[in-house]
Amino acid sequence: MAAKGTAWWENIFDDLRPLFDMKSADTMNQVRFIIKKLDLKPGSKFLDCPCGIGRISLPLAQRGIRVTGVDITVSYLEEFKKTAERRKLKVDLHHLDMRKINFKNQFEAAGNLWTSFGYFEKESDDFLVIRKIYQALKPGGRFMLHLINRDWIITNFSPNDWSRVGKIKILEERSFDYRTSRSKGIWHFIKDSGESSYEVTIRVYSYHELVRMLEKAGFADIEGYGTTKEEPISRDHRMMFIIGTKPKKR
Q: Which of 9, 118, 121, 244 sits a CA distance of 20 to 30 A from 100?
Protein backbone atom coordinates (compact mmCIF):
# COMPACT_ATOMS: atom_id res chain seq x y z
CA MET A 1 0.00 0.00 0.00
CA ALA A 2 1.01 3.64 -0.31
CA ALA A 3 3.31 4.97 2.38
CA LYS A 4 1.50 6.41 5.38
CA GLY A 5 0.73 10.09 4.95
CA THR A 6 1.03 10.08 1.15
CA ALA A 7 -1.68 9.96 -1.51
CA TRP A 8 -1.92 7.01 -3.90
CA TRP A 9 -1.07 9.23 -6.88
CA GLU A 10 2.27 10.15 -5.30
CA ASN A 11 3.42 6.53 -5.41
CA ILE A 12 1.68 4.47 -8.07
CA PHE A 13 3.06 5.90 -11.28
CA ASP A 14 6.43 4.15 -11.26
CA ASP A 15 4.52 0.84 -11.30
CA LEU A 16 2.08 2.18 -13.89
CA ARG A 17 4.86 3.15 -16.30
CA PRO A 18 4.51 0.05 -18.58
CA LEU A 19 0.89 0.96 -19.34
CA PHE A 20 2.08 3.99 -21.31
CA ASP A 21 3.70 1.64 -23.81
CA MET A 22 0.33 -0.03 -24.35
CA LYS A 23 -1.13 3.35 -25.33
CA SER A 24 1.48 3.99 -28.02
CA ALA A 25 -0.84 2.78 -30.80
CA ASP A 26 -3.31 5.57 -29.95
CA THR A 27 -0.75 8.30 -29.54
CA MET A 28 -0.47 9.68 -33.06
CA ASN A 29 -4.25 9.77 -33.59
CA GLN A 30 -4.55 11.71 -30.35
CA VAL A 31 -1.70 14.06 -31.30
CA ARG A 32 -3.33 14.90 -34.63
CA PHE A 33 -6.67 15.46 -32.88
CA ILE A 34 -5.10 17.70 -30.25
CA ILE A 35 -3.32 19.79 -32.90
CA LYS A 36 -6.55 20.22 -34.83
CA LYS A 37 -8.88 20.97 -31.92
CA LEU A 38 -6.49 23.23 -30.01
CA ASP A 39 -5.39 24.99 -33.20
CA LEU A 40 -1.71 24.37 -32.48
CA LYS A 41 0.90 25.69 -34.87
CA PRO A 42 4.72 25.82 -34.86
CA GLY A 43 5.65 28.33 -32.19
CA SER A 44 2.43 27.83 -30.18
CA LYS A 45 2.98 27.44 -26.44
CA PHE A 46 1.33 24.32 -24.96
CA LEU A 47 0.98 23.41 -21.27
CA ASP A 48 0.82 19.65 -20.63
CA CYS A 49 -0.42 19.27 -17.05
CA PRO A 50 0.37 16.58 -16.01
CA CYS A 51 2.76 15.57 -18.76
CA GLY A 52 3.95 12.10 -17.70
CA ILE A 53 6.80 10.79 -19.85
CA GLY A 54 5.90 13.15 -22.70
CA ARG A 55 3.85 10.63 -24.67
CA ILE A 56 1.83 13.46 -26.23
CA SER A 57 4.15 16.42 -25.77
CA LEU A 58 7.24 14.94 -27.40
CA PRO A 59 5.46 14.52 -30.78
CA LEU A 60 4.11 18.06 -30.38
CA ALA A 61 7.62 19.41 -29.72
CA GLN A 62 8.84 17.62 -32.84
CA ARG A 63 6.31 19.70 -34.77
CA GLY A 64 7.74 22.96 -33.46
CA ILE A 65 5.25 23.47 -30.63
CA ARG A 66 6.80 25.00 -27.50
CA VAL A 67 6.01 22.56 -24.70
CA THR A 68 5.90 23.17 -20.96
CA GLY A 69 5.32 20.02 -18.90
CA VAL A 70 4.28 19.64 -15.26
CA ASP A 71 4.25 16.38 -13.31
CA ILE A 72 4.48 15.04 -9.75
CA THR A 73 6.48 11.91 -10.67
CA VAL A 74 10.21 12.60 -10.78
CA SER A 75 11.10 9.47 -12.78
CA TYR A 76 8.65 10.50 -15.53
CA LEU A 77 10.17 13.95 -15.79
CA GLU A 78 13.66 12.46 -15.93
CA GLU A 79 12.63 10.11 -18.74
CA PHE A 80 10.88 12.95 -20.58
CA LYS A 81 14.01 15.13 -20.32
CA LYS A 82 16.36 12.37 -21.52
CA THR A 83 14.15 11.57 -24.51
CA ALA A 84 13.89 15.25 -25.43
CA GLU A 85 17.67 15.67 -25.20
CA ARG A 86 18.25 12.59 -27.35
CA ARG A 87 15.90 13.99 -30.00
CA LYS A 88 17.40 17.51 -29.63
CA LEU A 89 14.07 19.00 -28.56
CA LYS A 90 13.65 21.94 -26.21
CA VAL A 91 11.08 21.44 -23.45
CA ASP A 92 10.43 23.25 -20.19
CA LEU A 93 9.69 20.78 -17.35
CA HIS A 94 8.49 21.43 -13.80
CA HIS A 95 8.19 19.07 -10.81
CA LEU A 96 4.91 20.30 -9.33
CA ASP A 97 1.55 19.24 -7.98
CA MET A 98 -0.86 20.41 -10.68
CA ARG A 99 -2.87 22.34 -8.08
CA LYS A 100 0.18 24.54 -7.46
CA ILE A 101 1.02 25.80 -10.94
CA ASN A 102 1.18 29.57 -11.12
CA PHE A 103 1.38 30.50 -14.80
CA LYS A 104 -0.48 33.61 -15.94
CA ASN A 105 -1.69 34.26 -19.52
CA GLN A 106 1.25 32.37 -21.07
CA PHE A 107 -0.13 29.59 -23.28
CA GLU A 108 -2.14 29.29 -26.48
CA ALA A 109 -3.35 25.85 -25.36
CA ALA A 110 -3.27 23.36 -22.50
CA GLY A 111 -4.16 19.74 -21.89
CA ASN A 112 -5.00 17.47 -18.97
CA LEU A 113 -4.88 14.09 -20.69
CA TRP A 114 -5.52 10.36 -20.22
CA THR A 115 -7.69 10.58 -17.06
CA SER A 116 -5.29 12.68 -15.02
CA PHE A 117 -8.25 14.27 -13.26
CA GLY A 118 -10.41 13.43 -10.24
CA TYR A 119 -7.53 12.22 -8.06
CA PHE A 120 -8.10 14.46 -5.07
CA GLU A 121 -10.27 13.88 -2.01
CA LYS A 122 -12.02 17.22 -2.40
CA GLU A 123 -13.88 18.18 -5.57
CA SER A 124 -12.82 21.75 -4.90
CA ASP A 125 -9.26 20.64 -5.67
CA ASP A 126 -10.38 19.22 -9.02
CA PHE A 127 -11.94 22.60 -9.75
CA LEU A 128 -8.76 24.34 -8.60
CA VAL A 129 -6.81 22.48 -11.31
CA ILE A 130 -9.20 23.76 -13.99
CA ARG A 131 -9.07 27.29 -12.60
CA LYS A 132 -5.25 27.25 -12.54
CA ILE A 133 -5.15 26.08 -16.16
CA TYR A 134 -7.64 28.80 -17.11
CA GLN A 135 -5.31 31.38 -15.55
CA ALA A 136 -2.34 29.91 -17.44
CA LEU A 137 -3.98 30.43 -20.84
CA LYS A 138 -3.83 33.57 -22.92
CA PRO A 139 -7.20 35.10 -23.84
CA GLY A 140 -8.49 32.97 -26.72
CA GLY A 141 -6.49 29.96 -25.50
CA ARG A 142 -8.02 26.49 -25.63
CA PHE A 143 -8.00 23.67 -23.08
CA MET A 144 -8.58 19.94 -23.63
CA LEU A 145 -9.66 17.63 -20.81
CA HIS A 146 -9.33 13.96 -21.84
CA LEU A 147 -10.69 11.49 -19.30
CA ILE A 148 -12.80 8.42 -18.65
CA ASN A 149 -16.58 8.74 -19.01
CA ARG A 150 -18.61 8.04 -15.85
CA ASP A 151 -21.61 6.92 -17.90
CA TRP A 152 -19.48 4.30 -19.69
CA ILE A 153 -18.20 3.03 -16.33
CA ILE A 154 -21.74 2.60 -15.02
CA THR A 155 -22.78 0.72 -18.17
CA ASN A 156 -19.70 -1.52 -18.24
CA PHE A 157 -18.81 -1.87 -14.56
CA SER A 158 -16.65 -4.84 -13.65
CA PRO A 159 -15.58 -5.60 -10.04
CA ASN A 160 -12.19 -6.92 -11.16
CA ASP A 161 -9.92 -7.10 -14.18
CA TRP A 162 -6.67 -8.88 -14.98
CA SER A 163 -4.17 -7.53 -17.48
CA ARG A 164 -0.57 -8.25 -18.36
CA VAL A 165 2.18 -5.91 -19.53
CA GLY A 166 5.33 -7.85 -20.35
CA LYS A 167 6.15 -9.89 -17.26
CA ILE A 168 3.92 -7.79 -14.98
CA LYS A 169 0.43 -8.97 -14.06
CA ILE A 170 -2.03 -6.30 -12.93
CA LEU A 171 -5.16 -7.09 -10.91
CA GLU A 172 -7.70 -4.35 -10.32
CA GLU A 173 -10.33 -4.95 -7.63
CA ARG A 174 -12.90 -2.18 -7.58
CA SER A 175 -16.24 -0.94 -6.34
CA PHE A 176 -18.30 2.11 -7.25
CA ASP A 177 -19.78 4.49 -4.72
CA TYR A 178 -22.93 5.94 -6.31
CA ARG A 179 -23.34 8.50 -3.52
CA THR A 180 -19.97 10.15 -4.17
CA SER A 181 -19.42 9.04 -7.79
CA ARG A 182 -16.06 7.57 -6.84
CA SER A 183 -14.41 4.50 -8.25
CA LYS A 184 -12.61 2.81 -5.37
CA GLY A 185 -10.28 -0.11 -5.63
CA ILE A 186 -6.98 -1.82 -5.07
CA TRP A 187 -4.41 -2.17 -7.84
CA HIS A 188 -2.04 -5.13 -7.45
CA PHE A 189 1.18 -5.24 -9.50
CA ILE A 190 2.59 -8.76 -9.48
CA LYS A 191 6.19 -9.17 -10.64
CA ASP A 192 8.95 -11.74 -10.32
CA SER A 193 10.44 -9.54 -7.59
CA GLY A 194 7.21 -9.44 -5.58
CA GLU A 195 3.89 -7.62 -5.36
CA SER A 196 3.01 -3.98 -4.73
CA SER A 197 -0.52 -2.74 -4.07
CA TYR A 198 -2.23 0.64 -3.97
CA GLU A 199 -5.61 1.80 -2.73
CA VAL A 200 -6.95 4.03 -5.49
CA THR A 201 -9.94 6.32 -5.46
CA ILE A 202 -10.93 8.53 -8.39
CA ARG A 203 -13.87 10.91 -8.63
CA VAL A 204 -15.33 10.18 -12.06
CA TYR A 205 -17.45 12.76 -13.83
CA SER A 206 -20.21 12.84 -16.41
CA TYR A 207 -20.00 15.23 -19.34
CA HIS A 208 -22.63 17.62 -17.97
CA GLU A 209 -20.78 17.95 -14.65
CA LEU A 210 -17.56 18.89 -16.41
CA VAL A 211 -19.32 21.40 -18.64
CA ARG A 212 -20.62 23.15 -15.51
CA MET A 213 -17.17 23.05 -13.91
CA LEU A 214 -15.50 24.52 -16.99
CA GLU A 215 -18.15 27.22 -17.28
CA LYS A 216 -17.71 28.10 -13.59
CA ALA A 217 -13.97 28.56 -14.20
CA GLY A 218 -14.75 30.96 -17.06
CA PHE A 219 -14.46 28.75 -20.16
CA ALA A 220 -16.84 29.27 -23.09
CA ASP A 221 -17.71 27.52 -26.38
CA ILE A 222 -17.39 24.09 -24.76
CA GLU A 223 -17.33 21.07 -27.09
CA GLY A 224 -17.30 17.36 -26.29
CA TYR A 225 -16.36 14.27 -28.29
CA GLY A 226 -16.31 10.56 -27.53
CA THR A 227 -13.54 9.73 -29.99
CA THR A 228 -10.87 11.36 -32.12
CA LYS A 229 -13.28 10.85 -35.03
CA GLU A 230 -15.48 13.51 -33.40
CA GLU A 231 -18.27 11.12 -32.48
CA PRO A 232 -20.60 12.52 -29.80
CA ILE A 233 -20.10 11.60 -26.14
CA SER A 234 -22.36 8.74 -25.07
CA ARG A 235 -22.34 5.81 -22.66
CA ASP A 236 -20.95 3.73 -25.54
CA HIS A 237 -17.66 5.65 -25.56
CA ARG A 238 -15.16 4.97 -22.78
CA MET A 239 -13.32 8.28 -23.03
CA MET A 240 -14.28 11.93 -23.42
CA PHE A 241 -12.46 14.84 -25.05
CA ILE A 242 -13.87 18.09 -23.65
CA ILE A 243 -12.61 21.41 -25.01
CA GLY A 244 -13.18 24.92 -23.72
CA THR A 245 -11.94 28.37 -24.76
CA LYS A 246 -10.82 31.23 -22.54
CA PRO A 247 -12.74 34.22 -23.89
CA LYS A 248 -10.81 37.04 -25.48
CA LYS A 249 -10.80 40.34 -23.67
CA ARG A 250 -13.27 42.88 -24.98
A: 244
